[in-house]
Write a structure and sequence with these properties.
Elements lengths: L1 E5 L4 H12 L3 E9 L13 H11 L3 E5 L5 H16 L3 E3 L6 H13 L3 E3 L7 H10 L3 E8 L13 H9 L11 E7 L12 E6 L2 E6 L3
Parallel strand pairs: 1-2, 1-4, 2-3, 4-5
Antiparallel strand pairs: 6-7, 6-9, 8-9
Length: 215
């Protein structure tokens, strides 16, 4: 069955996609909701140029849809309907692990577009899950985090040791509650690693971000 991936550019959406493919589903298109100017992703703050690189490495089209928080849901449903018709989709794949309100929302918007929401990572153990991601060849970098972690974590490649360190500090090693977000640099779905532009680090309103140079 053909599917669209809700693609954040990070490890969870990547591993969910890998799991869906392993289960026999066929990827057709990636969907990312951008900020209103269409230049940076809403969820992970990634520039469209990096998301496009990831899509090209997978040989898949990317739909980057500008949205405000006010029209986010309406636009999400509209684009799901469009993609369903264009790519003959039956399902949409999401990388959520256990936030029930997120699953409820995904079930709702997919039902509105006559699609089935699939969450391959749902309710799996965090530290086991992140270790599986790494063992399965996902190379991923921390690109934003809360101030509990701090700017020193930005730009770090996630390893089993780092995940265990976060776990021991009481930080979700998957960052499921928004503690941090990641960028997949390479994985088995890619034809090769993406190239990253130069970046700087900033802290704004209790959250630390990588700011990418224009490319």
């Amino acid at each position: 069955m053909n599917f669209v991936t809700s693609w954040s550019g990070g490890k969870d959406s990547c591993y969910a996609m890998m799991q869906a493919i392993q289960q026999g589903f066929v990827p057709k298109v990636l969907l990312n909701m951008m900020n209103e100017n269409g230049k940076v992703s809403r969820s992970h703050g990634l520039p469209l140029s990096i998301l496009n690189q990831q899509a090209q490495k997978m040989g898949l089209p990317l739909e980057g849809i500008p949205a405000t928080w006010g029209d986010y849901e309406a636009k999400f449903i509209a684009v799901l309907k469009m993609l369903k018709a264009k790519y003959d989709l039956g399902t949409a794949v999401f990388g959520d692990i256990d936030l029930q309100p997120h699953k409820d929302w995904e079930d709702k918007v997919c039902a509105a577009a006559s699609l089935k929401a699939i969450l391959p990572l749902w309710q799996q153990d965090r530290i086991v899950l992140v270790n599986q991601m790494l063992e399965n060849g996902i190379v991923t970098m921390i690109v934003s985090c809360n101030t509990t972690m701090g700017e020193s974590y930005l730009g770090k490649i996630l390893t089993k040791e780092l995940a265990q360190e976060l776990h021991e500090k009481g930080i979700d090693p998957c960052g499921e509650n928004g503690e941090f977000h990641t960028l997949v640099i390479n994985c088995p779905l890619f034809s090769g690693a993406i190239e990253l532009p130069e970046f700087t680090r900033i802290t704004y309103e209790n959250y630390c971000f990588i700011v990418w140079e224009e490319v």
